[in-house]
């Protein structure tokens, strides 16, 4: 064929070239250990060398699962996500939720849900069941638990 794509699944990197690729990847974005290993395995000849390299980078603090976890938590919270969606994002990055368990538990999820509800629907407590159901669905979609949702949609702030 005249316009065939070149195959990139031809692993060829070892040693310093593999290390250079790892640094190039880490300068652009924070990767979890699992993500970095997966990415480097696409180009490496030896999987054991990749694992050793990633462990070394982690020991030298070039790669940190803790930093990745904190970044995911902050990013998801800015997007208005609840605890269930954040847990899912951490699993997707192959991160241990225990890394940020203390910070995760210190967050006032009720306040997060209430502020999100206020931003979308206003301060008033809805009496109409259809509108209430709409608010519940919205907050459920964002990843909040039902007990927090019910408190948030029925809460009236005293000024």
From TrEMBL:
Pfam family name, one: RecX_HTH2
Any coiled-coil regions, as ranges: none
RecX third three-helical domain mapped to chain residues: 107-153
Compartments, as annotated in UniProt: Cytoplasm
InterPro entries (alphabetical): RecX_HTH_2nd, RecX_HTH_3rd, Regulatory_RecX, WH-like_DNA-bd_sf
Alphabetized UniProt keyword annotations: Cytoplasm
The keyword Membrane is annotated on this UniProt entry: no
Main location: cytoplasm
Annotated RecX second three-helical domain residues: 64-101
Domain of life per record: Bacteria
Record family assignment: Belongs to the RecX family.
Function according to Swiss-Prot or TrEMBL: Modulates RecA activity.
Record's protein name: Regulatory protein RecX
Organism: Acinetobacter soli NIPH 2899
Taxonomy of the source species: Bacteria, Pseudomonadati, Pseudomonadota, Gammaproteobacteria, Moraxellales
Gene behind the chain: recX
């Amino acid at each position: 064929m005249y316009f065939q794509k070149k195959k990139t699944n031809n692993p060829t990197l070892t040693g310093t070239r593999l290390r250079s690729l790892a640094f190039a990847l880490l300068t652009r974005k924070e990767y979890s250990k699992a993500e970095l290993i997966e990415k480097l395995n696409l180009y490496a000849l030896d999987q054991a060398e990749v694992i050793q390299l990633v462990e070394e980078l982690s020991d030298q603090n070039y790669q940190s699962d803790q930093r990745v976890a904190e970044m995911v938590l902050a990013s998801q919270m800015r997007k208005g996500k609840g605890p269930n969606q954040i847990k899912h994002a951490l699993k997707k990055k192959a991160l241990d939720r225990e890394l940020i368990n203390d910070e995760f538990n210190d967050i006032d999820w009720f306040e997060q849900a209430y502020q999100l509800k206020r931003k979308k629907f206003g301060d008033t407590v809805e009496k109409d069941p259809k509108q209430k159901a709409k608010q519940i669905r919205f907050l459920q979609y964002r990843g909040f638990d039902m007990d927090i949702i019910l408190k948030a949609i029925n809460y009236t702030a005293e000024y």
